[in-house]
Amino acid sequence: MTDFTMEKGADGVALITWDCPGKTMNVMSIDGLKELESCIDDALADDAVKGVVITSGKEGSFAGGMDLNLLATLKESAGDDPAKGLFEGTMEMHALLRKIERAGMDPKTNKGGKPIAAALPGTAAGIGLELPLATHRIFVADNPKARIGLPEIMVGIFPGAGGTTRLVRKLGAMAASPLLLEGKMLEPAKAKGAGVIDEVVADPVAAAREWVLNATDADILKPWDAKGYKMPGGAPYHPAGFMTFVGANAMVNGKTQGAFPAAKALLSAVYEGALVPFDTALKIEARWFTHVLMNPSSGAMIRSLFVNKEALEKGAVRPEGIPDQRVKKLGVLGAGMMGAGIALVSAQAGMEVVLIDRDQAAADKGKAYTEAYLDKGISRKKVTPEKKEAMLGLINATPDLDALKDCDLIIEAVFEDPKVKAEMTQKVEAIIPEDCIFASNTSTLPITGLAKASKRPEQFIGIHFFSPVEKMLLVEIIKGKETGDRAVAKALDYVRQIRKTPIVVNDARFFYCNRCIIPYGNEATRMVTEGVAPVLIDNAARQLGFPVGPIQLGDETSIDLAAKITRATKEAMGNEYPASEADNLVFWMEEEGRLGRKAKAGYFDYDEKGKRLGYWKGIHDKYPLADEQPDLIEIQERLMFAQVLEAVRALEEGVLEDIREGDVGAVLAWGFAPWSGGPFSWLDIIGTPYAAERCDQLEAKFGERFKCPDLLREMASKNQTFYGRFSPEAKAA
User: Fold this and answer.
1) Runs of H (alpha helix) within 530-631
2) Residue 456: left if φ>0, alpha if ψ -120 to 50, beta else—which one?
3) Is the pLDDT of residue 268 over 80?
4) Structure pTM?
5) Is 652 exposed, middle or buried (0-12, 13-18, 19+ CB in 10 A)?
6) 342: alpha, beta or left, given left = phi > 0 and alpha = psi -120 to 50?
7) Of 271, 268, 273, 263, which Cα lies nearest the Cα of 298?
8) Are 663 and 723 spatial neighbours (Cβ–Cβ below 8 Å)?
9) The CA-based dihedral angle spanning residues 487, 488, 489, 492, taken in that order and rounded to the nearest 10 degrees
10) Could you tell me which residues are beta bridge partners of residue 503?
């Protein structure tokens, strides 16, 4: 079984087809590279072959990227020197793609080469675009679902198979930056408009074949191999190019705050590569690519944001032996913001939705949320009027509970009050089928307690969405003490239908995500009461890679919500509640009416349109700024350890059953330092011995909340890593 096969046509065009057996999308492997090179060598050596067309055997796609196991294999190939293995393996890829690009032409005259075109039936990502960029012309099917781009930066690496160098030389640094620095994926027409590809046609193979038969020496000579080549937009030493690179450096550091190694390495590869001849630039790209891959951040990001995320989406933690549980008809109780969002994403997935609220007006308001979303999509030409009509037709907004009688899943999203939820559970269970699964979208109330109102606790589960539902990628599934496997399978299959990433956790107050998020905010407000400048706290978090700082996050999620959670937690925990001055700060802000962005007054001042004007100075009347501000690293470690120690305790107590879920959940739910790969990956990066030592120091200075968990202490004594001990592979061994 091979990935690449070649068929030589009677017209002299060799068709190389990429088709990985058993995969829905092509990915490049070491064997695939060898097979591709063999096909290219054969075509270039055969006088009967006039040119080559490279295409895919997969309908609707060319390739999805590199098999990430290839990178691990390259690391291992050099034994004690993994960097050497990565660099040499990368240079071998460069040599192959350069062979395609030069296509046998005379090195002195640049003539006599064979035209090689790429015919893409659809999506081309990563190496799936880097390979076509090395060909002489790229033809793409007129497929609106296709996406073209280089998304590597999103998982902590950058295009290292020549894509970085070629795209910059083809488009210029400024025009290439959205694809390289933001990982933008473009539909075919936009990719052509940007100059990434050459043609959008109905039949790319036929068009490519025709072009190959008529191509001249001039058609196949790349601009950077011709005399007199000048980089579009100017090279770094050109006045225009100089300004581009100065701006790019500022932009990258402004967006990443220096927390993401891949972005800086990419910019270095582009800048340094632009100063030298093309082949030297490829070597520079390979060196920076190797540098990034040797950074533990890269491996952690790839593992969490690609490998583990994909495994969870494919059902890695789904109970075995349970038949397909896809949802056909969903009932949503409560048409507020959460319920309306759940109805929207479910209708997007093609489900029938019954959206319930107390009266018709409230239910209609919930449905109007979907209509407004679709109208915005129409204005951006991403949604058609026909699609809008079809989606709205799937949502039945009504106060009539009898409309739920043939639903197979219910998601309750009513007011966060156990009595209200219990009453709703009992009313609905009297109507729905016996085998219908009932889920609560509660964010804080224990599922086991809510399930007491149910006659079928084995069919009662938590499905916790994050707001706004349509934008957030994660869904947290919570098992109560009596929740059965079918309920878990149902929840997982539903989350897969709406194309989000699930994690499954056991029941406990705040579950997993909020359990870690709340101490993050609490630690920040504690610092404010100590006189630490809010701007210093927020910037410390942003320099760790968090999308927003904890003070700003407090305004975004609302201060009265924080006060409500604090009161409920104090009531539930009684004397065990760890009270602090941070609670008093939140209650005082609530009394002052400074409830956050929604009130246009919180930790920030706002204008009439809700735009932040700056941090509210009035807070220092109650909590004066300290004359001497703490060290940045100390602030960052307080913020990090406040979260990761809760993650460790969640694992220790069995709330988390799989550390992959702990890492993926943290990054997707609240943006935990994505460069680190998540709390457990971060602990592996800094090392458990250092983590335990730092816990002791923080506990001595700031209190018992930083006490080292027993599990972490034990692992530190053995110098263990979390993935070395708890990964599925480690458990299996």
Assistant:
1) 534-542, 550-557, 559-573, 581-591, 619-622
2) beta
3) yes
4) 0.87
5) middle
6) alpha
7) 263
8) no
9) 120
10) 476
- The whole-angstrom separation of Cα 608 and Cα 594 is 15
Alpha-carbon distance of 229 to 226, in angstroms, equals 6
The Cα-based distances of 692 to 463, 498, 524, 675 in angstroms read 34, 40, 22, 22
Structure letter (DSSP) for residue 113: P
Quote the tokens at residue 255.
């967006």
CA dihedral 230, 232, 238, 243 (to 10 degrees): -170
pLDDT score of 1: 64
Q: What gap in Å lies between CA 121 and CA 381, rounded to an integer?
A: 23
φ, ψ dihedrals at 299, nearest 5°? -60, -40
Task: Say whether 702 sits in a helix, a strand or coil.
Answer: helix
Give the residue among 667, 666, 652, 315 at the shortest CA–CA distance from 491.
Answer: 315
**Euclidean distance between CA atoms 326 and 312, whole angstroms:** 16
The rounded distance, in Å, linking the Cα atoms of 344 and 392 is 9
Residues above pLDDT 90, as percent of the chain:
75
688 CB burial (10 A radius; 0-12, 13-18, 19+): buried
- For residue 113, the number of C-alpha atoms closer than 13 Å in the C-beta half-sphere is 28
Ramachandran assignment for 324, one of left (phi > 0), alpha (psi -120 to 50 degrees), beta (any other): beta
CB of 142 within 8 A of CB of 81?
no
489: its two tokens:
């399978």
List all residues 6 or more positions away from 456 whose beta carbon is below 8 Å from its beta carbon: 429, 434, 438
The CA-atom distances, in angstroms, between 208 and each of 142, 375, 389 are: 14, 39, 39
State whether residue 563 is helix, strand or coil.
helix
Bridge pairing between strands 148-149 and 123-125: parallel
Q: Any residues with CB less than 8 A from the CB of 713 and at least 6 apart, and which?
A: 692
pLDDT tens figures, 94-150? 999 999 999 999 999 999 999 999 999 999 999 999 999 999 999 999 998 899 999
List the one residue out of 183, 186, 133, 184 whose CA is nearest residue 301. 183
